[in-house]
């Protein structure tokens, strides 16, 4: 949920909280006129040629596209409106897939591209007013807790076997979606289906890390090998080494770290996108910690019960404060001086300029821009000078916790949309995630949603030019990167609190502890209002009474859970690294049986 080349263009999460600003809205609409007739074989063959490669055989592609044409017959001539944020994947949908769908089905499909914050604003408008703004939505799975609790979202697992059975693709293969757990509510039901996904990983200069001279100097100073950092201690040592020991490469000043620090809406999801979990905030559990998640919100049953340590949460606990402290320390000591005044969209292109050694917080949605021929971080043969790898973890992290964030823009239907329009929109939303088109779309946007696409031979062939993207998505580590989960009862209301409060720490107005205390109190205040309103029913917040921090530290220890943790005596254990090539070789080289391509 970022807008890259913001354009997450790459990014749009930084507009999340500027949704009231008309100047922030970038709307791109592609209206497609379509013939009111069934798709003939020539039309189908034309689009099969476009949707190449595919994990389906040409025969099965034809079968699936014929099914869409037939299922759409009752809705021919209708004008249907769908919306998503603006990223490369959605641009392909809006410009190419919407046209294909219209030609195949006779439904006039308009797919709007607007900034992410505006998607959320319009979604809220429809949910609050009951007026149909859009017939279909692509919004982040970060809203799963919101969708589950407000009862205004169509439960897809029920819809596909009930009211929408006649318009549900028999070849959809729900179990092929790698992010299905992200879009499942506490009730075990499916509320959304992923349309695009990308992870937040560690990025580094492979050519520098394999340089024999640098490796020898690093080991002489730190006593261990220069490599992919396993923990934050090693990341910090590497940042220090390149910034203050190497200093220059080929006459250019280099830095051991890159980030951004301006008090701006984009600073919020810099942290809600799982920075605290990387440090070790929350409990064990995939996709999100239970009973305490990576936002520090405790949930009992399906009810959020508190964010502050005094209520059993962990938003202002030692692990969270440590995460903010390290963020600020690294930004000031090891990043370019101008980074402190940058927003996400301003900081995003910097690593591609060639003077950054590593970046802890890097989105794979940047991959397409980072492999452009001729840029400073690419070799002449088309291979990258850099690699991506799993992120290192902080000193509070325990095995079994999530380790990073994965964005999952997901197709969603609202109950306030008229039934016939909802069915027509559901056909389009399935079409853009169908096996007939998914692999080609993955090659365009590099935002994977299907196991079968990840393991396709076309990506085996392309992998050497993508810097570790394919290896990561094929690895067992992938499951530790997950979106915001069910514990967050109202994502739009709570997400905006982060940049405002952490921004005070970034600017120096507050200490990390003061900033996180204020954030925890603000989250509790929002949840208290939701509790009093009763609007979220039996799964809405029901806050615990306040206790001492020691009460909750002792309770976690007694219960065998983790959060909140007491402050560690030593927050910087010895650095640990792993050789990148050894790491890659340790991962499975064959796909799960069910994902084998036809």
TrEMBL record:
Family as reported in the entry's similarity comment: Belongs to the bacterial solute-binding protein 1 family.
Signal peptide extent: 1-38
Any one GO molecular-function label of the UniProt entry: transmembrane transporter activity
Keywords: Cell membrane, Lipoprotein, Membrane, Palmitate, Periplasm, Signal
Keyword Aminoacyl-tRNA synthetase: no
A Pfam family this chain is assigned to: SBP_bac_8
Subcellular location: Periplasm
UniProt keyword Cell membrane present: yes
Official protein name in the record: Carbohydrate ABC transporter substrate-binding protein, CUT1 family
Organism the protein comes from: Bradyrhizobium shewense
One Gene Ontology term, aspect cellular component: periplasmic space
